[in-house]
Write a structure and sequence with these properties.
This protein is of the alpha+beta class. Strand 11 and strand 12 form a beta hairpin. The strands form 2 sheets. Strands 5, 6, 7, 8, 9, 10, 11, 12 and 13 form a 9-stranded mixed β-sheet that branches. The protein has 8 helices and 13 strands. The structure holds pyridoxal-5'-phosphate (PLP). The site of pyridoxal-5'-phosphate has 13 residues, from helix 6 and strand 11.
Amino acid sequence: MDSQYLPMSEAKISVLDWGFLHSDATYDTVHVWGGRFFRLDLHLDRFFGGLEKLRMTIPFNRDGVAEILHNCVALSGHRSSYVEMICTRGASPTFSRDPRDAVNRFMAFAIPYGSVANPEQMQRGLHVAISRTVRIPAASVDPSIKNYHWLDLVRGLYDAYDRSAETALILDMAGNVAEGPGFNVFVVSNGALMTPASGVLPGITRRTVFDLCAEIDIPAVAGEVTVDALRSADEVFITSTAGGIMPVTVLDGRPIADGKVGPVTRQLTELYWRKHEDPNWS
Ligand code: PLP
């Protein structure tokens, strides 16, 4: 925290921190696989982009943050970890309501890598429900800033659990597919990929899928993804740092296509994990 390395149990923030009181914070999560960071530069770009948009400052530049993250991983002792960097607005020493008075705080931690999908779910594909009650309102929070505004997403999750699904997809106000709690979504139809273009976090794993598709000549575009496109897709998968590329085989209780993990999802997943061995991708 700030410039100190502490055991997790000793890391504390003030209850007056605007990050806690107003969700006035940004963060990023990157993963380390077999001792190596995966696409750290892209995560740092997004984190520093968020800081700039929120007018937050930290006393470290990119190299400084990278060094802290490496130290967190080394101190944690985990070879494969999930590493989070956070900046909160902080608390105002005078209790004022002016965010400029708050002292921004930087913290980071490394915990063991844990996937959204367990090995069994990776084999058979996730069961997902489209939330019936929750929609993501456009521009309430700039989705390009990675943020902790998860009220919609968590409500969507409960909506999904109520219908015995394992996770949720949320629609935007126009009724098109947006994203889920902590992941982006792709549909595969007739050998081409499509993912929602707007109102979503520009995920680094989403970006990696575009890069992989360019390498193996699979067409991939960002555009409007309708619920019908999702229901009639040949394959669906979700993407996130915590899990990579994860298959979805059941939507609202019905199988997607034949209900099995599809060949494009398999090919991309294999390639994604192979890139973790490639130093050019770290
Ligand atoms: N969408 C949301 C709302 C997220 O919180 C996340 C990750 O936490 C993602 C998408 C996936 O982004 P990434 O691939 O960078 O982990």
